[in-house]
Amino acid sequence: MGRWLxxxxxxxxxxxxxxxxxxxxxxGDVVTSADDLVWRMIGLxxxxxxxxxxxxxxxxxxxxxxxxxxxxxxxGDQLALLGGGISALAIVWQALPTLIGY
Length: 102
What we know:
By secondary structure, the chain is mainly α. The protein is built from 4 helices and no strands.
């Protein structure tokens, strides 16, 4: 189970980010409006936290890929690196509308 969590860690962070930003925007829309500055900053803070976790996974996976390992472990590290990189890029992409205020 630990290998699966490692390989899918970045994608899990991306999923949590997607659901969290959606929940923050929905809650902000119910309370005041989704484009209110306070709710935008809450969304950006959450996005920044998720981005840091995704970058940490990517960094750790990049360090592990450099070390020689048996093929199955190396493949898992490569998947973790790919998933972490894709999730970091996707989190930035999803946070851009909040950042520009649209």
